Amino acid sequence: MSRIAYVNGRYLPRAEAKVAVEDRGYQFADGVYEVCEVKGGRPVDERRHMARLDRSLKELRIARPMSPAALSVVLRETIRRNRVTDGIVYLQVTRGVAPRDFPFPGNGTRPSLVVTARNYDPARLEQQAAEGIAVVTVPDIRWQRVDIKTVALLPNVLAKQAARDQGAREAWLVDAQGRVTEGASSNAWIITRDGKLITRGLGQDILSGITRSVVIDLVRAQGLAFEERAFTVEEAYAAREAFVTSASQIVLPVVRIDGRPIGNGAPGLIASALRRDYHRYAEIG
Ligand code: PDD
Questions:
Q1: Domains in the chain, please, with CATH?
Q2: Any residues with CB less than 8 A from the CB of 37 and at least 6 apart, and which?
Q3: Per the confidence metrics, is the pTM higher than 0.90?
Q4: How remote is the CA of residue 244 from the centroid of ligand 1, in Å?
Q5: How far is the CA of 35 from the centre of ligand 1 (A)?
Q6: Is 149 a catalytic residue?
Q7: Phi first, then psi: what are they for 146, rounded to 5°?
Q8: Nearest residue CA, atom 5 of ligand 1?
Q9: Which residues are near ligand 1 (CB < 6 Å)?
Q10: pLDDT tens digits for 207-249?
């Protein structure tokens, strides 16, 4: 749990860390966020996360809360003050505080910035990776710009709860054509019977995952067969392996989809190797 939070210029104990009731993030989900892995006390893939943050802000015409160099200092200071060695750092930028009205507020409104950080439970993560996770499929009912990493995550919350209700850890979201878009908080991958890695191509219908992009670098460097395209739920059921990627989970093998075992029902060799090798390709700052 984050003990100290950075809130608009101050580092505060959690109990005192508060945002205004008229913050547009609270009222309209008018804001964006990033989650970065922390390893050895340092942020992982920070440059790619900051580039994606910049893009999300530009798409929504929210001003940068501070320069990239200053933001980098705040991230590191929040990691340090929370004594995070291996965990995550979370940052959220909203359009700021203004009387509730739908159009953007005037130019005087400053964006709000909150940063928190916490350690993982390493034993729990390793157990998950060793056992693999179950996934359930649910219809993708999100808006049409999920390439922007906004805090408007209600459909993802409902999908995740549907997974939990069925004893699974992740939900795979399925488009109107029966093809998987991505996970509720991860990108979705399969490996076909003939050994080809497949993940959906980038567009407005998935988040451009940072972990996904690093895994693609790794897959290419290792010369593995790889195709960026949508795959159906039926193809996923028939896959040799499946896995998800995200900053908080890195590569996590999927061993069951909708109750059906994937491959032999145990974490796959390729997914496990990608998990093991990931940090040799990631940038640890
Ligand atoms: N989730 N797709 C969705 C919908 C996500 O929410 C995430 C990340 C990803 C993976 O992106 P990345 O590899 O950059 O973490 C894909 C974060 C971890 C979260 O909301 O906690």
A1: 4-120 (3.30.470.10), 125-280 (3.20.10.10)
A2: 43, 44, 45, 87, 88, 247, 248, 250, 282
A3: yes
A4: 10
A5: 7
A6: yes
A7: -75, 0
A8: 185
A9: 35, 156, 182, 185-187, 207, 209-212, 245-248
A10: 999 999 999 999 999 999 999 999 999 999 999 999 999 999 9
